[in-house]
Specification:
It contains 6 helices and 9 strands, in the order H-H-E-E-H-E-H-E-H-E-E-H-E-E-E. It is of the alpha/beta class. It starts with a helix and ends in an 11-residue tail after the last strand. It binds S-adenosyl-L-homocysteine.
Length: 222
């Protein structure tokens, strides 16, 4: 491809990302920092070959291994729920999947720690984020329900797979003043997206909306 054609393609991808951010603004995402991050991350690089043309639609897509890349609206909503006035601090993500959510977080946070249990997905996401230049993301292959004690506490924790309850180690590794967002609901149950905040006095939680995530494997009764 000629340099002009490459440039033209990049321009189209940029325009598609900005259009997606605009669509999400229309769907109630009000935090411009989050919308800027959505406009900055090339989602088409995180989808499977056959789905590239759908990369900037507001829908979840298969990434193989029975897993999905989340719908952009939910990525934005969860990210927005974690944001404070000062931005995002150190983040832990459980369920790397394609790595897209991790890239959005890495655009906003100084350091992101992300854990994936499927080795093939872990390897693919790590290689892609490295190639795209996200050098503030740290990857681990294993059970994310246990958290990542070595780097705790985390100012923000995001769980992108659903369980009947929030794994206690993740609550324990949340900093005082920190926020955790996670889908809660067993198999065949409606899942609720919960926002937990930790203060000196303990934890308080708030329901954000109903959602549909793949299960968190190996946690809470799976
Ligand atoms: N955040 C992802 C979407 C993830 S889908 C993205 O942006 O693409 C949920 C992911 O959680 C799947 O890849 C699944 O393999 C992973 N997962 C499920 N249970 C897990 C566990 N106990 N520990 C770590 N990862 C887990």
């Amino acid at each position: 491809m000629s340099a002009a054609a490459v440039g033209h393609r990049r321009g189209l991808a940029r325009a598609a990302r900005e259009a997606l951010a605009g669509k999400l603004r229309g769907r109630g995402i009000g935090d411009e920092r989050v919308l800027d991050a959505i406009a900055a991350v090339p989602r088409h690089r995180f989808t499977e070959e056959g789905f590239t043309h759908l990369a900037y639609e507001d829908q979840s897509l298969s990434i193989g291994h029975g897993q999905t890349i989340s719908q952009p609206w939910i990525v934005a909503l969860m990210t927005q729920a974690l944001m404070t006035k000062g931005g995002l601090g150190q983040v832990l993500e459980v369920g790397t999947g394609s790595g897209y959510q991790a890239a959005v977080l890495a655009t906003l946070a100084p350091r992101v720690f992300t854990i994936e249990r499927v080795a093939a997905l872990y390897r693919r996401a790590r290689a892609l984020l490295e190639e795209l230049g996200y050098d503030n993301v740290h990857f681990r292959c294993g059970d994310g329900a246990k958290g990542w004690k070595q780097f705790a506490p985390f100012d923000a924790v995001i769980v992108t797979a659903a369980a009947a309850g929030i794994p206690p180690p993740l609550l324990g590794q949340l900093a005082v003043g920190g926020r955790l967002v996670a889908p809660v609901g067993g198999r065949d149950e409606t899942q609720e997206l919960m926002l937990v905040t930790r203060s000196r006095r303990g934890y308080s939680e708030r329901r954000l909306c109903s959602v549909k995530f793949v299960p968190l494997v190996g946690a809470c009764g799976e």
